[in-house]
């Protein structure tokens, strides 16, 4: 449990926020933690129970697409059952008030979208649980897909059984590759979740949209001044997303962190001028925006 932010800190943040036009927000899993969606690396996070190398890599899907689809079915069910929390709503309202605000969203749960975050002001850098694409990049097929479960034989409310030394088979009996969704365009490859896995490049159009914003919408060669950078619920360990914090700082931004942990990697390098809101983002973001 953390002490609430002091009145002095809130006042200095509010003054800066009010005069800020160009605001960059880096969103991570901590934003959705209060909505009941596990983070990746902090307590109860996915990568504490499951191996990211067994599930969030192209080679993992090649090795065991049934297991990977089970994991994503489970995640889709969790995200669909969750509701946006007060911080998702506060960010969406702030974006509507500040047309110069851009949110770089690492989350794949679509809770920001469901809180009506203005679509032109959010970049879903790591994709979405509710989009699928052809496993063959050369085919290029991609679609929105909200079906749950994707594999009818698999109860999406149960976590997948990941093989380990005592259990070498992950497959649910009766499920075969033929039961997995196939690409309707090339009719050869499997469909896969359209989330960005480790070792994969980020979607080029999304990276370009962030670049455009960084350069103030022009083809200038240097970044435009950024007034404020908000770092909300991310360990800032995953690149290239983490790099936007330093980039905004270089472009003049003051930085405000909203994180449960003071020692989380994402807040390991605070500077004197930064604001550090320690605690649940779902409480602190709306409070700081009051
Ligand atoms: C709260 C809270 C509450 C809790 N309130 N706060 C440069 C250096 C080193 C490595 C690399 C590098 N460049 C590239 C790499 C490799 C790799 C990488 O970054 N690895 C690091 C882990 C070391 N990056 C990539 O592979 C990326 N691709 C790439 O760079 O392509 C070019 C390339 C190709 C080939 C070779 C080299 C380069 C792709 C990264 C894709 C990330 N994908 C995932 C999975 C998405 C799909 C899915 O969901 O299944 O994205 S991994 C996972 O991490 C997910 C997240 O978006 C991402 C970030 O996690 P996040 O949001 O920060 O969550 P946590 O759990 O880490 O942190 C939660 C935080 O919240 C904590 O701080 C808590 O304290 C806090 N918190 N409750 C407030 N209530």
From TrEMBL:
<protein>
    <submittedName>
        <fullName>DHS-like NAD/FAD-binding domain-containing protein</fullName>
    </submittedName>
</protein>
<dbReference type="InterPro" id="IPR003000">
    <property type="entry name" value="Sirtuin"/>
</dbReference>
<keyword id="KW-0520">NAD</keyword>
<dbReference type="GO" id="GO:0017136">
    <property type="term" value="F:histone deacetylase activity, NAD-dependent"/>
</dbReference>
<comment type="similarity">
    <text>Belongs to the sirtuin family. Class I subfamily.</text>
</comment>
<feature type="domain" description="Deacetylase sirtuin-type">
    <location>
        <begin position="3"/>
        <end position="290"/>
    </location>
</feature>
<dbReference type="InterPro" id="IPR050134">
    <property type="entry name" value="NAD-dep_sirtuin_deacylases"/>
</dbReference>
<keyword id="KW-0479">Metal-binding</keyword>
<dbReference type="InterPro" id="IPR026590">
    <property type="entry name" value="Ssirtuin_cat_dom"/>
</dbReference>
<dbReference type="InterPro" id="IPR026591">
    <property type="entry name" value="Sirtuin_cat_small_dom_sf"/>
</dbReference>
<feature type="binding site">
    <location>
        <position position="139"/>
    </location>
    <ligand>
        <name>Zn(2+)</name>
    </ligand>
</feature>
<feature type="binding site">
    <location>
        <position position="183"/>
    </location>
    <ligand>
        <name>Zn(2+)</name>
    </ligand>
</feature>
<dbReference type="GO" id="GO:0046872">
    <property type="term" value="F:metal ion binding"/>
</dbReference>
<dbReference type="Pfam" id="PF02146">
    <property type="entry name" value="SIR2"/>
</dbReference>
<dbReference type="GO" id="GO:0070403">
    <property type="term" value="F:NAD+ binding"/>
</dbReference>
<feature type="region of interest" description="Disordered">
    <location>
        <begin position="153"/>
        <end position="173"/>
    </location>
</feature>
<feature type="binding site">
    <location>
        <position position="186"/>
    </location>
    <ligand>
        <name>Zn(2+)</name>
    </ligand>
</feature>
<dbReference type="GO" id="GO:0005634">
    <property type="term" value="C:nucleus"/>
</dbReference>
<keyword id="KW-0808">Transferase</keyword>
<feature type="binding site">
    <location>
        <position position="134"/>
    </location>
    <ligand>
        <name>Zn(2+)</name>
    </ligand>
</feature>
<feature type="active site" description="Proton acceptor">
    <location>
        <position position="126"/>
    </location>
</feature>
<dbReference type="InterPro" id="IPR029035">
    <property type="entry name" value="DHS-like_NAD/FAD-binding_dom"/>
</dbReference>
<keyword id="KW-0862">Zinc</keyword>
């Amino acid at each position: 449990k953390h002490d609430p932010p002091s009145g002095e800190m809130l006042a200095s943040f509010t003054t800066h926020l009010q005069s800020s036009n160009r605001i960059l927000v880096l969103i991570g899993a901590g934003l959705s933690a209060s909505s009941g969606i596990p983070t990746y690396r902090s307590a109860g996070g996915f990568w504490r129970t499951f191996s990211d190398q067994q599930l969030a890599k192209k080679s993992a899907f090649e090795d065991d697409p049934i297991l990977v689809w089970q994991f994503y079915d489970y995640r889709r069910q969790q995200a669909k059952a969750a509701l946006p929390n007060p911080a998702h709503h506060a960010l969406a309202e702030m974006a509507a008030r500040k047309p110069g605000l851009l949110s770089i969203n690492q989350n794949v749960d679509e809770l920001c979208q469901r809180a009506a975050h203005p679509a032109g002001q959010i970049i879903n850098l790591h994709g979405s649980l509710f989009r699928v694409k052809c496993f063959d990049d050369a085919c290029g097929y991609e679609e929105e897909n909200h079906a749950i479960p994707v594999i009818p034989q698999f109860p999406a409310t149960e976590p997948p059984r990941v093989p380990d030394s005592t259990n070498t088979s992950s497959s649910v009996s009766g499920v075969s590759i033929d039961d997995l969704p196939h690409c309707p365009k090339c009719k050869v490859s499997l469909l896969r979740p359209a989330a960005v896995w480790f070792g994969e490049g980020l979607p080029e159009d999304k990276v370009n949209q962030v670049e455009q914003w960084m350069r103030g919408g022009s083809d200038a060669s240097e970044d435009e001044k950024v007034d404020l950078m908000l770092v909300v619920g991310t360990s800032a360990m995953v690149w290239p997303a983490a790099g936007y914090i330093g980039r905004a700082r270089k472009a003049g931004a003051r930085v405000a962190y909203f994180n449960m942990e003071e020692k989380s990697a994402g807040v390991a390098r605070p500077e004197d001028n930064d604001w550090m809101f320690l605690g649940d983002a779902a409480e602190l973001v709306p409070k700081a925006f009051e």
